[in-house]
Amino acid sequence: QVQLVESGGGLVQAGGSLRLFCAASGRTRSTYVMGWFRQAPGKEREFVAVTISWTGDSTQYAYSVKRRFTILRDNAKNTVYLQMNNLKPEDTAVYYCATRGRSYSDSYSYSADYDYWGQGTQVTVSS
Fold first, then answer.
1. Burial of 35 by CB count in 10 Å (0-12 exposed, 13-18 middle, 19+ buried)?
2. At 63, is the secondary structure helix, strand, or coil?
3. pLDDT tens digit string along 18-72?
4. Of 64, 56, 55, nearest to 109 (Cα)?
5. What are the pLDDT digits (tens) for 88-101?
6. What is the DSSP letter of 112?
7. What is the rounded distance in angstroms from the CA atom of residue 3 to the CA atom of residue 57?
8. Whose CA is closest to 69, among 52, 51, 82, 55?
């Protein structure tokens, strides 16, 4: 089992920045793939970003956040970060951290691709 706890959400003005944190505990060797998703009110949960290696140098981003968001991982702390810059009101959502172990699947952008989820942290961007 893996436990994930997100933090760092809050209220920020458009154009501002936030850094989200996701701390993993338990069976952390099953956290090879670590991703971020978000869900706005009345909308489906959507993929935001993923890191696909222990080094963190293999990443993918949703088109809507490319060049604004950066996903980073610190294996010594079993933590993955989501640095969010130039935030927009449409980034307002509950942000979830998710993880799974290493596998042959190269699918990373669907909720079903992940085994463990955190409880989420609210990000609100005011205009």
1. buried
2. helix
3. 999 999 999 888 889 999 999 999 999 999 999 998 887 899 999 999 999 999 9
4. 64
5. 999 999 999 999 98
6. G
7. 23
8. 82
